[in-house]
Amino acid sequence: MPESTFTNSLKGFFKKQKSPSPSPESNTSSKSPSIRNNALFIEDPPLTPLELHGYSKTTKNKILTLELGEEIRNMLPSRHQVSSNWELVYSLEQHGASLNTLYSNIKPSTKYDKNGYLLVIKDQRGTILGSYTNEHFHPTDMKRFYGNGECFLWKSKLIDNKESGEKFIRFQAFPYTGLNDFIIYCTSKFLSLGGGDGHYGLWIDQELLHGVSDHSLTFGNEPLSSQGNKFSILGVEVWRIS
Question: Where is this region: Disordered (predicted)?
Answer without folding.
Answer: 1-35
